[in-house]
UniProtKB/TrEMBL annotation:
This is HTH-type transcriptional regulator YofA. Residues 10-67 form the HTH lysR-type domain. SUPFAM superfamilies: Periplasmic binding protein-like II (SSF53850), Winged helix' DNA-binding domain (SSF46785). Belongs to the LysR transcriptional regulatory family. Signal peptide: none annotated. Keywords: DNA-binding, Transcription, Transcription regulation. It comes from Achromobacter deleyi. InterPro entries: LTTR, LysR_HTH_N, LysR_subst-bd, WH-like_DNA-bd_sf, WH_DNA-bd_sf. GO terms for molecular function: DNA binding; DNA-binding transcription factor activity. Pfam families: HTH_1, LysR_substrate. It comes from the Bacteria.
């Protein structure tokens, strides 16, 4: 073979092919794995050998193996490729930097959304998240005023078109040891105005012919859950807020639907930079199994399933 004609530069594609052949011990297996023709890989190996002026591979009884010079190059090739991948990862990390303002509806910032934000934070450690949690109407007002880059909230509160929608099941629940009297006014726990769930609750109770009285009003979903668990009344809660050891689902009557559905949407500013678009993409991916994705904008096949320990109990006499 001719004397070395090193240019000082190694083509990563040639090194990657060389490493693959060494790892598989065969040109044909490396070609199959890469989905390429064996002749193409053979040409690349030949070009690399011409570049270094050394034979890098030789045949053995079990296939192809690196020569002494090939073993030396293999160690460097692995390091060169690893450094290239590390550099690309760091550059991507730097690209997803800056700051993104995210708004979450208070009535859904319980389980799925914090987990999605945690995944976003781990995937983009250089990205500064400014997260605000508020009730649906005030969140929509913040969005309308341009104070947020991304928002996730109940669609009824927003006037813009969402980039993604989900249908989330809502259920009437009471404390697990409570048995509401069907002949007495129903004690109800609701969110404070303005709140679309509050209006939905009142409309549903009226349609079911149920007398009711409000016993507790709160903006905070944690306070609402605690009030239900302690027997202060019934409330309309999403599936992810249900606690099977302390709550049970109830029915307003034989003609009332077993559950209601609220539509939530993700809203993204049209002025998003690369960081904002990366945040939206990761959040959408993380929320694939939250609620039931709407057919018009499908992102996954997940639906909300009720715990078997939450039997529905009728309230009708």
């Amino acid at each position: 073979m001719s004397s070395p004609a090193l240019s000082g530069d190694f083509d990563p594609a040639l090194l990657r092919t060389f490493v693959a052949v060494c790892r598989h011990g065969s040109l044909s297996r490396a070609a199959d794995q890469a989905g390429r023709a064996q002749s193409a890989l053979s040409t690349q190996i030949r070009r690399l050998e011409e570049q270094v002026g050394k034979r890098l591979l030789h045949r053995t009884g079990r296939g192809m193996a690196p020569t002494t010079e090939g073993e030396l190059l293999l160690s460097y090739a692995n390091r060169i490729l690893a450094l290239g991948e590390a550099a690309a990862a760091r550059l991507r990390e730097r690209a997803v930097a800056g700051s993104v303002r995210i708004g979450l509806s208070e009535d859904v910032a319980v389980a799925a959304l914090p987990a999605a934000l945690g995944r976003l934070r781990r995937a983009c450690p250089q990205l500064h998240l400014e997260v605000v949690v508020d009730d649906g109407e005030r969140l929509a007002a913040r969005w309308q005023e341009g104070m947020l880059d991304v928002a996730v909230g109940v669609c009824a509160a927003f006037v813009d078109e969402p980039v993604q929608t989900w249908a989330v099941d809502l259920h009437w629940v009471c404390a697990i040891d409570e048995a509401p009297d069907p002949d007495a006014p129903l004690d109800v726990i609701v969110y404070a105005e303005p709140c679309s769930w509050r209006r939905l609750a009142f409309d549903t109770l009226t349609a079911a012919g149920r007398d009711f009285r409000v016993t507790l009003t709160s903006h905070n979903v944690g306070a609402t859950i605690a009030a239900v668990e302690n027997g202060l009344g019934v409330a309309l809660l999403s599936s992810e807020c249900l606690r099977p050891d302390t709550m049970r689902i109830i029915s307003l009557g034989p003609d009332s639907p077993p559950s209601l559905r609220a539509q939530f949407g993700m809203y993204a500013s049209k002025r998003l930079n690369d960081s904002g678009r990366a945040a939206v993409s990761l959040l959408r991916e993380s929320l694939q199994n939250w609620g039931a994705p709407q057919p018009s904008r499908p992102i996954g096949a997940g639906t909300s399933h009720l715990p078997e320990a939450l039997p529905a109990v009728g309230l009708a006499g």
